[in-house]
Amino acid sequence: MKEDCIFCKIISKSIPSTIVYEDDAVMAFNDINPQAPIHAIVIPKKHIERISDLRPEDSKLISKVISAGNKIAKEKKIADSGYRFIINCNKDAGQAVFHIHMHVIGGRQMGWPPG
User: How far apart are alpha carbons 89 and 91 in whole angstroms?
Assistant: First the structure.
């Protein structure tokens, strides 16, 4: 845990959130500024600042993040119609919080290219 990280504070529950999934390694909550009818953020409980900081030993953790996203899509009934996973890396890509996180977005038609 990193004391000044907003996502670490959500994990410790010192900042409230609407949790939609949680297990021993991962937590997911609704985005406070949703970009689609379904917009959840999935985070590992281990603090890793960016996707480029991943190490080989983190592969199971990232697999759990993706699995949690798939579970959320099924639970929110967007698995059949379609959904998008987004992981930003660094400022130019749009990363605003430096704790790895994956957006699960769905419930509407998505455009391409995305940004």
Answer: 7
Among candidate residues 39, 99, 101, 103, the one labeled active-site is: 101
The alpha carbon of residue 38 and the mean position of all alpha carbons in its chain are separated, in whole angstroms, by: 12
Q: Which amino acid is at 76?
A: K
Report whether 90 contacts 50 (CB < 8 A): yes
Right CATH for 6-106 from 3.40.1440.10, 3.40.50.300, 3.30.428.10, 3.30.1360.40: 3.30.428.10
Question: Looking at this protein, which amino acid is placed at residue 81?
Answer: S
| pLDDT per residue as tens digits for the range 71-93 | 999 999 999 999 999 999 999 99
Catalytic site includes residue 103: no
Summarize pLDDT for 1-35 with one digit per residue, the tens. 898 999 999 999 999 999 999 999 999 999 999 99
